[in-house]
Amino acid sequence: MEIIGNIIKGAITIKEALTPDVNPIEAQEQVLQHLLSTAKDTLFGKQYNFEAISNAQDSKVAFANSIPYFDYNQINDKWWSKLHEGLADVTWPGNPSYFALSSGTTGKTSKRIPVTDAMLSAIKQAGIDQVTALSNFDLPAEFFSKEAMMLGSSTDLTEKEDHLEGEISGITASNIPSWFKGFYKPGEDIAKIDDWDKRVTTIAKRAKQWDIGALSGIPSWMELMLKTVIDYHEVDTIHDIWPNLQVYTSGGVAFGPYKKSFNALLGKPVTVIDTYLASEGFLAFQARPETEAMQLVTDGGIYFEFVPFKPEYINPDGSLKNEAPSVTLKDVQLDQDYVVIISTVSGAWRYLIGDTIEFTDVERAEIKITGRTKFFLNTVGSQLSVNKLDDAIRHLEETFNTTIPEYTLCAKRFEDGFYHSWYLGSEGLKEDTLTIVASLDKFLKDANKNYRVARGKALEGVKVKVIDPHVFAEWSGTNKKKGGQVKMERVMGEDKFKEWEAFTSKH
């Protein structure tokens, strides 16, 4: 097997050496032209005169000036819903082969996002590019002969009308290249099990049959799977079962809040590589070990625009105001949060994906995810993004020598005014609530001037409750579905928070 590993590693290294460097700005201009020319005869392309935009002196400016922003509800109500009425050539030529179901982090109702064959090809190519980039991480040859565990949603897709439906991780796993199937675990039979708990139990039972070198999946669900395997075999760490585990490919959410609790399940360090795969496409991946930032996939099926993440550009529901200005990759700056806008080969146009990012290297088009537009906590002017909330959690972990893999909060009105009401998921946080509150409040004051100003005015302070982390998984299972792309909402509105508090009171 070491011979095979050397061959594979050598092939990857050669491919990396022979692949020309991509100029992100030029690549994006080519992607936009491809999108416009391909979709010019669709209903959407005719409505917005893609042919004229394509021939304009500056297509990027004409594109931005001609087409409004769309969030999911807007584009679905006006355009994608026509696909379910039997119409073709709506926002992309033909009909999509798949629809990705996504409840995201904001509600019970599943979004149905079209996934075309062109998008699947783009995702596969981005995956190959990511594998090729592994040559930068100085992994030993034997790693490339080990098996890879992809923990996503069920690959047992639902047939509906002329397409298949499922979560994006299930769709992509059901379309893995034939050459990769020998390395892929848990294998097609287990991957098709729809019930999350049954699937994970089956993985635990078979775990010793596999030689896993890499893991891939959302951190929260990956942790639960690893704990199940460890408990089933009555061992101390996952390396007692999979001694050759060397890489974890994280995605879906920021890995930071899970880092300490995840590492507690390991017997030795692993290389953590971040990815940015959403229901709408494969947006970015970590391409080099010198940074934790991810490189945008600028030469695939996605054209990117960026709106400065400022309160005056954001509606209360997290959508963008029509007058909000956008910039292309050519004009982005460091130290600025941006709302990500994408146009894709699945027929999403100037689409608000819901994430905010910050550029860490403009020339390389490298980013880090900083939060969600709907999770921007700006009640009474506190202006806290998810990355600031994550930083606060890491502060508490370090201060109290514990792990807090899950949390959520709400700006809630109490009898004496507004408080940030936090629920912390932790098994090891034993300090009294007042001590935790004081530490959390002080950190946020020191880290964020807007929060400090708000604390001197309408924001009375913070309240904290510590609960079992498993309650968060049960909440997701009750309100959405366990596993896959399901992510815990970090910031809730007051109505949703009432449901959450009623739920936690019973657990």
From TrEMBL:
Pfam family for this entry, one: GH3
Residue ranges annotated for the GH3 C-terminal domain, each copy included: 389-493
Protein name: Beta-lactamase class D
Domain of life where this protein originates: Bacteria
GO molecular function: acid-amino acid ligase activity
GH3 middle domain ranges (all copies): 297-362
Listed GO CC annotations: cytoplasm
InterPro entries: GH3 (IPR004993), GH3_C (IPR055378), GH3_M (IPR055377)
UniProt organism field: Olleya namhaensis
